[in-house]
Design brief:
Length: 127
């Protein structure tokens, strides 16, 4: 079955960095656009970043643009989220998601596009 497993979360001080990884199995990773989302306590799940199948197209929500970078390694079936200049308001559970698509340059910013989700990894940023 399809599995998306996030790792790399943890506790970091404000201004610090973390790199999240999401390893995929049970699907053809190179056929999937990938996305990162997060959910803070008491808040709805929020889209952060997306990347196309080829990795050539990316998109970010304004709140993380310039601080977070999404990338992928199709040979390793892994998508990454490099997070720099972290703020206390970045504290949340972070999820990766996969959307099968026939379009190599398309990315998706809405949760309904994604069929597969990971279990999440906790990121906590202290002030």
């Amino acid at each position: 079955q399809v599995q998306l497993v996030e790792s790399g979360g943890g506790l970091v001080q404000a201004g610090g960095s973390l790199r999240l990884s999401c390893a995929a199995s049970g699907l053809t990773f190179s056929d999937c656009a990938m996305g990162w989302f997060r959910q803070a306590p008491g808040k709805e799940r929020e889209f952060l970043a997306a990347i196309s199948r080829s990795g050539g197209s990316t998109f970010y929500v304004d709140s993380v643009k310039g601080r977070f970078t999404i990338s992928r390694d199709n040979a390793k079936n892994t998508v990454y989220l490099q997070m720099n200049s972290l703020k206390p308001e970045d504290t949340a559970v972070y999820y990766c998601a996969a959307a099968e698509t026939i379009y190599s340059t398309t990315y998706y910013s809405g949760a309904p596009w994604y069929s597969y989700w990971g279990q999440g990894t906790q990121v906590s940023v202290s002030s």
